[in-house]
Amino acid sequence: MVRLRNALAVGLSIITLFAGLAEAAVVARVDRDRVEQNESFTLEIVVDSDVRSEPDLSVLQQDFYIGQSSHRYDTKVINGDISRSRTWQVALMARSAGTLTIPAITVGSERSQPLTIEVREPSVAPPGEADVFITAEVDSSDTYVQAQVLYTIKIYRAVSTRQPALREPVFGGAEVLVELAGDERSYEAVIGGRSYNVIERAFAVFPQESGEVTISPARFEARVLRDGRITGRKVFQSEAQVINVKPIPAPPAEFPDAVWLPARDVTLSDEWSREPDRLRAGEPISRNITISALGQLETQIPVIEPPEVDGVNVYSDKPGLSRRFEPDGIRGLRTDQYAMIASSDGDIVLPGIRIPWWDIVNSEWKVAVLPEQSVRILPSPDAPPPDPVLDNPPEPVDSAESDAAPATTEQLASVKFWKLVAQILGGLWLLTIVGWWWSTRPTREQREPEPEPVHRQQARVLKRARKAAAENDAQVVRHALLEWGRLEWPDAAPRSIGALAQRVAPPLSDELATLSSASYGNGDSGWNGDATARAIRSIRAVSDAGDRSSTDLLPPLMPQ
Questions:
Q1: Distance between CA atoms of residues 343 and 142, nearest Å
Q2: What percent of the chain stands above pLDDT 70?
Q3: Separation CA 542–CA 544 (nearest Å)
């Protein structure tokens, strides 16, 4: 018995070991899949178990320079289950431009999937032998109303700096909305044989009207550490940019009422709460339809009206709005949720959905399509069984025989009485059925109109504030900007212009501080309505003082 127990214990240990090895899947990913030839990027290798083997990086040497690497261990405890993983981070730089493949990485007996990365020719050259310089560029100088333009700022430093601060540009001309397009990035670049540390920050710009958008130079201020000495504060600035905004083109002939949706890519997909092929009559099921638009905000995506199908009741739910950050900017996601109940069994066809959208890359109308679907509805388990078919139906009674025995007066009276009782009971039963149906019938709630998006309300308020500032009407400016503050911070709205000045970035914060002083000061206030109108065009909110400092000041930028 002892030997048997030992043998079982050894067997279980071996099974557990092989099960752990089978779960040691290897996942490889990169922080950027589009880089320039002289820029570094990070390859991350993750193994979902505590393995002792090291990844084989020799397969990377043919196409990439391998830089510094590091690794870490992670342990998670969820509901008493312990999971461990190990992650390696490797800095790589491409040897040549083009579309390169990162081969499968082997860790022990497991291999990752290959990755593809796009490497472009170097596009940046330093002005002379500059130790520090800054660049700014847009991905397109021509665009359309409400279409995304990516504005990217890069700070290059070959020396250490102290007290760094990035002054973001001012947008002028046509009205725009500006959103951060992802987190700030840090990497290395080699230009002219010299190594630079690069800080990159990207913004998504959405023009709200046709015309011309001007972007002032971005400024980077810092003290430079050179030969053990710190210089005075120096200012480095980028080139100014101009964007030409085209008006909205006419809708396609097939969709004369098409909602304007400019994007780089639009897709439609759906998801069911369970497989619809086993759906029975009277049973509810949920269907989620998602529109994914690259280069568009989630609040700009149109509502999907559910198709009407005979025999199916459809009830709408609150939509889900979200966004993702990708190399090409913001991808907006809108998910419309519907509950569906079939009233009878049989085959039904859910019509396809077609959403027209404007391709800003090729400047043409396209249509995103969700194909129609056929669903078979099974009978409800509570449905009554069909009437049985009799093999030998009763023979009809001969009328001559029925006349042979005439009914008595008492029999006729009894028949009439019970016939009357049956009619009364039948009527009551029918009224009960009608009352039950009326109380349980599905009521289609009246669809309330969609509220106006917050950004459009803010754009209208800011337009009123700019007009009042141009006319030097300080009272209207104060009311309009405080109304904008209530839309931006509905739970903790600022109550004064001075409080609002603490929540926005320069140059508007400086103008509001002057306006606040003018409200309580004497004599000439120094407030300039034209300067305030220009500053309102580039309004950008910060949540508190901490956010304000993180917007204006970069983290310590010490190159390797």
A1: 53
A2: 82
A3: 6
pLDDT digits (tens, 9 = 90+) for 362-419: 999 999 999 998 888 888 776 555 555 555 555 554 544 444 445 555 555 566 777 7
C-alpha span between 153 and 166 (Å, rounded): 10
Residue range 23-120, CATH number: 2.60.40
Instruction: Name the nearest CA neighbour of 372 among 307, 287, 303, 317.
Output: 307
Inter-residue long-range contacts of 451-455, CB under 8 Å, 24+ positions, other chains counted: 453/299, 453/300, 454/299, 454/487, 455/177, 455/297, 455/299
CA-closest candidate to residue 521, choices 497, 505, 555: 497
Cα–Cα distance for residue pair 48/76, rounded to 1 Å: 11
- The stretch 150-174 carries a mean pLDDT of 92
Q: pLDDT for 416-449, tens place per residue?
A: 777 777 888 888 888 888 887 777 766 555 555 6
- pTM as predicted: 0.61
Q: Please name the residue that has the structure tokens 């609150």.
A: 318
Using alpha carbons, list the distances in angstroms from residue 535 to 41, 299, 510, 512, 531: 37, 25, 9, 10, 6
8 A C-beta contact, residue 459 and residue 145: no
- What residue spans define the domains of the chain? 23-120, 132-246, 262-377, 454-552
Four-way CATH pick for 132-246: 2.40.240.20, 2.60.40.4100, 1.10.3720.10, 1.25.40.340: 2.60.40.4100
CATH topology (fold) of 262-377:
Immunoglobulin-like (2.60.40)
